[in-house]
Amino acid sequence: MSRPIKSKTAPIPATQHWYGMCPPISEALPAEEDLIRTKQLIDILKSCDVFADDPELQHREKVVKQLESLFREWLTEMCEELNIPDYATEKVGGKIFTFGFYLLGVDSKGADIDALCVGPGFLKRNHFFTSFFEKLRAQKEVKDIRAVEDAFVPVIKMSYDGIEIDLLFARVHRKCVPDDINLLNSIWLKDADVKCVRSLNSYRVTEEILRSVPNVDNFKLALRAVKLWAKRRNIYSNVLGFLGGVSWAILVARICQVYPNATASTVIIKFFKVYNMWVWPVPIELKSPENCCFDLPVWDSRINPSDRSHLMPIITPTYPQQNTAFNVSRSTFAVMMEEIQRGYAITEDIQKKKADWSKLFETPDLLQKYQHFVLLHASSATEKQHLEWVGLVESNIRLLLGNLERSIHVNLAHINLQSFSGPSKLNAKEGKSTKWLIGLAVNTEEYKNLKKDLTTPLMCFTETVYSLAESCKMYKEGMTVSATYLAKDNLWWQMPGGQYKRESASVAHCSAAQASTSIQPAATSSTTRDTKRARSPHPETSSKRFRSGEEPPKGPCSESSGVSLSVSPSQSVSRPSTKRPRAPEPETTSKRVKIDLNPPPVELSDLPPVLTRPAAAVKRAIRIQLVRYAHRLRNRNLSLKCLKPRSTSYSPP
């Protein structure tokens, strides 16, 4: 038997290391044109004032150290209160970890700081949100502090010495927290509650992103540009259904992995090219998922049926893996894809020297894009109440967007991220109000023969907000929320430059008060208010019956598109009545309401936040629905008669 011949060739080397889950697409070194484009990009970013100067950076570092000192001081006080032995109190430690854009090093001027407070295991979460909250509120540097304990990730929000701070809390199963603790070790997640895991992962994800890119400096510069682009194009908000900072960072990091030697300008060009071609919902992942067997929920569309419905999966690189873009809806997804297509076209022109970087960062005009809008208005009696009230309303706006896009009459609901704040008309001295604008792409072709009515989605949203406020005992007298339909002709809106913009010289005759929803909860009043419906201002048209398939004549509250948004329930303490309305009483000519065909222009700040009386349009809309129901019932009876066999006479033999 012959012996095996040993090969003299060199052994096959081990698999070459690369960043990410697959080999890079290109490892080409940058050309001179790439370096020139990167310098031009830096100049544009400097002109946009996105880089924080040294004094501001030093001030931020000082604020973080002061917060950590306060946190350690509070831990010592809690040890004494809980009768912890002296030797354990001296070593209790405590540490604050920054995360988010501050840790990534891409925070801009005036940006907030995200921080995680890590304490020992003998503490409880309510200690942090009660005792430490009071200690922070007693500091002279702290303003506008509020605790959001019921959030998905509980947080304390405040302004400390002029800087916005978001504080999270997590505890580890140790008696002390040393300075050199490594939170990237997944062992700290063992036996931890879900809220602590989410808080710990806020830091762990940020740190892992930095370790997942080949060139940190190029990644930071490219991320600054993408962040500026997303904010300028109004698609930077996780709360409102777009992508947040972590999602954009993961998307940029993935491009850096597949183009490891590319400059920042090339990374941005490839960013728009790759994601313009990307087939969603194929997930974006920076590394292979790990399984620590801690029985924590992880994102996996192969196992979890609910994960298959996510439109834009962007997965965190640490255990337990989660989708950072789970808030993305059909409308926000369509808006972001449209913006990515626009970015791809512009970057292609930049490569061909037909455009410069400034065109990429131009701000859009929502008023020119849509013809129909919904105005969301939240107001409170005092400024202190308004902080909590606006936070609750804003965190549920995506529910309103979901309700609108589920309507057969709405193709897309696009919210403008820039809200408008000002005094409340109910209490101009102390009252505060905030307004958001939502652009609607109305489906006027497929359902052109149907009456378009958005009463239900608008009313459901206001009812949900009031119910949540009552359940968490947040509601105070004076808190109101309303959703109002406005046509483009009737819209005044404050632009980023601080000026009001009017879209047309003619103002629509339908005022905002005739199409708003405002349902007060039971705590608003102890007496029953008058719920009698107002008479229709046009009895000659409202009492007329229309033939099947015939549209009613356009009245002053009817828009050219045929959209009828009669959403005006009363401010009664009870839910809207489900009883049938009474037959309309005949009105004499002397009682007819005179309509001013040329009303004065209505500014946004002059719109009433709530209704003091039900709008007359509801009565007319319900009557039309009843007429159509009668027509359908009559047609159904006629069809049954036609199908019924004729009776034949029968005589016995």
Walk me through what this model shows:
The model is unreliable at 4-10, 495-500, 502-620 and 640-653 (pLDDT under 50). The longest helix is centred in the first third of the chain and has 28 residues, at 54-81. The chain has helices at 32-47, 54-81, 86-90, 101-104, 125-137, 194-211, 216-232, 245-258, 264-277, 330-351, 366-369, 383-395, 397-405, 455-471, 539-542, 617-643; strands spanning 95-99, 113-119, 142-148, 155-160, 163-171, 372-380, 410-415, 420-423, 432-442, 480-487, 492-494, 500-502, 516-517. Strand 3 (142-148) and strand 4 form a beta hairpin. It contains 16 helices and 13 strands. Helix 7 packs across helix 8 and helix 13 (397-405) packs antiparallel against helix 14. With 653 residues, it is α+β, with helices and mostly antiparallel strands. The strands form 3 sheets. Strands 6, 7, 8, 9, 10 and 13 form a 6-stranded antiparallel sheet that branches. A 5-stranded mixed sheet has the order 1-2-5-4-3, sandwiched between helices. Helix content is 34%, strand content 12%. It is globular, with a radius of gyration of 30 Å.
